[in-house]
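> forwarded from #structure-qc
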């Protein structure tokens, strides 16, 4: 089984408000905002962008989240470096992390098993 494309882009920022305004100036619309300086925006039919604020002394990261329809049916290719196997998340999905040849982490996201 293969992935089905990009589900979301996950971005860390030092200023949630400025980052959200930047994306809104590019035409993204706010789907929701949390009470802990994070939220999700969407631009057209493309993937969602989820932004979370991190402390100033922490480096910011970005990750692509790829869709997998069924975590139990997904057999990772032996060429993939699995960093973390599929695990349940607190937000109702299952996620696996793999590392690309340049060291970037990619997240594979499937529906939760609930």
């Amino acid at each position: 089984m293969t992935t089905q494309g990009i589900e979301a882009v996950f971005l860390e920022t030092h200023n949630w408000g400025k980052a959200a305004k930047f994306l809104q100036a590019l035409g993204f619309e706010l789907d929701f905002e949390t009470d802990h300086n994070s939220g999700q925006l969407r631009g057209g039919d493309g993937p969602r962008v989820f932004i979370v604020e991190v402390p100033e002394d922490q480096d910011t990261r970005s990750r692509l989240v790829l869709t997998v329809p069924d975590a139990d049916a997904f057999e990772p290719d032996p060429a993939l470096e699995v960093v973390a196997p599929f695990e349940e998340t607190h937000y109702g999905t299952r996620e696996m992390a793999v590392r690309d040849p340049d060291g970037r982490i990619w997240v594979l996201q499937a529906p939760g098993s609930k």
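QC bot note: The chain has a mean pLDDT of 92. DSSP finds one helix and eight strands in the chain.
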